[in-house]
Amino acid sequence: MTENKTKKLALSILFDAIGMLSYIFPPFTEIIDIAWAPLAGWLMTKMYKGKVGKAAGFFTLIEEGFPGLDFIPTFTLMWIYTYVVKKEKVKGDVIEVDPS
């Protein structure tokens, strides 16, 4: 596993954990969700480029913004989609898609 993939996985797990913090602090659930939802959507578009990243960013914004959906690990699921399902290979700053 390359360093970039490992770093993205670690960040994905961290960002999903931050999104779940509202379950730990119930009195502040709405405040945390309102603050985190747009930031999470933006972070997703920065981690994953192109149309897929934009779609994932929008989904993340909705998922984090609606109460009760914070349990969905959208960042980790996007990592799995990118590196396991689509099997993208990273070479430096260039992402290559495995045609198989």
Unreliable stretches, pLDDT < 50, 5 or more residues? none
Query: How helix-rich are the residues, as a percent range?
Result: 55-70%
Distance between the termini: 19 Å
Q: Give the C-alpha Rg.
A: 14 Å
Q: What general form does the structure show?
A: elongated
Overview of this protein structure:
- Keywords: Membrane, Transmembrane, Transmembrane helix.
- This protein is mostly helical.
- The chain has one domain.
- It has four helices and two strands.
- Strands 1-2 form a two-stranded antiparallel sheet.
- Helix 1 runs antiparallel to helix 2 and helix 1 runs antiparallel to helix 4.
- The model has no long low-confidence stretch (mean pLDDT 84).
List the helices and strands and how they pair.
Elements: H1 3-19, H2 29-47, H3 50-65, H4 74-85, E1 88-91, E2 94-97
Antiparallel strand pairs: 1-2
Helix pairs in contact: 1-2, 1-4, 2-3
Quick gist of this model?
The protein has helices at residues 3-19, 29-47, 50-65, 74-85; strands at 88-91, 94-97.
Keywords:
about 100 residues; mainly alpha; two-stranded antiparallel sheet; about 65% helix; transmembrane; membrane; transmembrane helix
